[in-house]
Amino acid sequence: MTFRELLSGKGIVALAVTVMIGIAFLSSGPTGGKDKIRQESITNRSTTQFTTDNERQVTEVFAWETQLERRLETILRQVEGVGSVTVSILLAEGVEKNFATNFSTNQRTVEERDQAGGSRRTVETNEGTQLVLTRSAQGGTESPVVLKEVKPKVQGVLVVAAGAHNPLIREMISKAVQTYLNVEPHQISVLTREGR
Hints:
The structure is a single chain. The protein has about 200 residues and is α+β, with helices and mostly antiparallel strands. The protein contains four helices and nine strands; from the N terminus they run H-H-H-E-E-E-E-E-E-E-E-H-E. It has helices at about 5, 10-25, 35-75, 165-180, and strands at about 85-90, 95-100, 100-115, 120-130, 135, 140-145, 145-150, 155-160, 190. A three-stranded mixed beta sheet has the order 1-8-9. A two-stranded antiparallel ribbon has the order 2-7. Strand 5 (about 135) and strand 6 form a beta hairpin.
């Protein structure tokens, strides 16, 4: 196109359209930029929530281990001949929680007949479950309703006792731990405390 053609009616329109397209393209910014930032933000929030839930579960397991250890130490100290005692318990897994859910089923039946006397019956079934949530009064945060909480099983127990040098006392300690924690003998190790 020459300069004269460019200044004619068709040329000015073409130039104006080209400039508008360029401005629109530049004002939209890099493609995917805003979406990418938003997606990363959501991903980071989800990861943080998952980490917080894991940390909470680890804290619950640790608290349960500590509570069991202290109770067992208190009981074993009362047994004659055991002396000073330290108990360490290792749990197999985290706390298992069963949550309340709403279960719904919708069924729709459609019967169709054509003019030739044929018929067709269609049955559509939709099933769905939804977690039951409660909202706290203070912060308005929602949390699932827990129906049942199963404490983790004991994987192993280590007992260090001053009186464990005596085989009879060692056997009594082992039997007491088996009974109290409902564990097998191979899951228990009883050791003698240094400097009895």
